[in-house]
Amino acid sequence: EKSGYKHFMLKEIFEQPRAIRDTTLGRISLETGKVFLGEMKITEEDFRRATRIHIAACGTSWHAAIVGKFMIERLARVPVEVDYASEYRYRDPIPDPNAIGLLITQSGETADTLAAQREMIAKGMKTLAICNVVGAMIAREAQGTLYTHAGPEIGVASTKAFTSQLVALFLFALHLAQTRGTLSDDESRTLVESLSLLPGKVEEILRSADSVCEQLAKIYSGARDFLFLGRGIHYPIALEGALKLKEISYIHAEGYPAGEMKHGPNALIDESLPVVVLATQDETNRDSHLRYEKTLSNIQEVTARSGKVIAVAIEGDTHITQLVDHVLYVPPASELLLPVLDIIPLQLLAYHIAVRRGCDVDQPRNLAKSVTVE
Ligand code: F6R
């Protein structure tokens, strides 16, 4: 059942190229660049009229939601609000029948996410679910469901479900943009093509990063704390990298927007603190490049205080190798899709550290795969 892998988590990490391909399958046309979401009770007119999108989710799915906010706002120019599902009700969301509710959930049974969905519906909103389990409660109560086709996820730590959620969010953002006319046909075609190249790129990372992460685990598995830093769309990936590490290895880890370091966390840096920095960039995108340059200054702030830096960077970035202790390389991609590549080495790093520490990777203490109580 683990197909020769030592743990379900490792098997599921290696299934990601297939999961991403299946989530995309039948939903895109490479010729026209068009994206199809399938039948739902949310109409094209609803999408055109939408004043905003409210997203609610928990844990890893909440990280996907923040990435989704960047994708949707960039491509479709619709404002997006992201809430922890467990918090959504407590802010008494302002009723807006033209807002669309979006729930992101692997299991489709998370109690807090279901409660947020019911709150949305009570406030007059239509809801769309991005869900991995067919026929789950949240999908049944939604006016539309975009299924991720990651397949059953057994490991408690979400891996392939997460990357499939990112892909589903990218498809949703593209479809919304196409419906609202905010993207040219050329832009659509380029983005869809770039999406179709993702599985091959993930395969490439899996081939190269696994042994590097095993080596890194030897050096850093004894660390007491870890920091993960990123900017812009890479910031939620820093959060997700930290969550993966803490939940399966029990090492305290925090994710931060890189620019926040000087507002407090810099005080933590010393020679015993490993800092993982997301320093990938899309060189064809000016904003992405500027973010990268600023991230390099943050790296220098860490190394100047003797912190150890593990960077995730684009293949061929020789400049960064001179600044940091270790580099994990990923192939180049469009800025909005880089998060799918960024997270792969961080999953492998968390996995190998947890294995070295003798942790029960597939069944971490105190956690359940599906959280059906609020
Ligand atoms: C972490 C993890 C959890 C889930 C969260 C929401 O690896 O798996 O944080 O993401 O419990 O679960 P779903 O997506 O099923 O609603």
From TrEMBL:
Catalyzes the first step in hexosamine metabolism, converting fructose-6P into glucosamine-6P using glutamine as a nitrogen source. This is Glutamine--fructose-6-phosphate aminotransferase [isomerizing]. It comes from Silvibacterium dinghuense. It is found in: Cytoplasm. The keyword Transferase applies. The active site is at 369 (for fru-6p isomerization activity). GO terms for biological process: amino sugar biosynthetic process; carbohydrate metabolic process; fructose 6-phosphate metabolic process; protein N-linked glycosylation; UDP-N-acetylglucosamine metabolic process. Its main location: cytoplasm. The keyword Nucleotide-binding does not apply. Residues 43-182, 216-364 form the SIS domain. One of its GO terms (molecular function) is carbohydrate derivative binding. Its EC number is 2.6.1.16. Keywords: Aminotransferase, Cytoplasm, Glutamine amidotransferase, Repeat, Transferase. Homodimer. The chain holds residues 258 to 631 of 631 of the full protein. It is an enzyme of class 2 (transferase). It catalyses: D-fructose 6-phosphate + L-glutamine = D-glucosamine 6-phosphate + L-glutamate. GO terms for cellular component: cytosol.
